[in-house]
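Incident log, entry 3
Record: Dabb family protein (139 residues)
Problem: checksum mismatch between cached and fresh output.
Input:
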Amino acid sequence: MDTQSRREFISSTGKLTIMSGLGLGAASLEEETAQLRNKFIHHVFFWLKNPDSQEDKQKLIAGLQRLTKAKTIESAHIGVPAATNREVIERSYQVSWLLVFKNDADQEVYQSDPIHLKFIEECSMLWEKVVVYDSVQAK
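Fresh output:
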């Protein structure tokens, strides 16, 4: 049996404890990966007309929060750029909107959902640019 220093033992058990508390254990990752299998991922990035306006950012976030009530959305995440700063990281957007749909058909229904159309009507004046990345499971 390999011997492990006290420091290595404490470090490894501490990491496992933290990961378990966050739901990031190996079984959880496998379960979460399985839950995303064959889902339709819709990721939207917004650049505001007034990028320094906290008021405009909050209006957009509030609009997205109302939009989460659309029936075909399985999961949603509203984000802002993280503090990470590496050459490959795009941080010029102000808000991101990540959605998980059961399939492409549900995403299509979402596009014409009255809640989505109302969001566009109420919030489109806030952004100058929107970029959408849609993805499905690689085969």
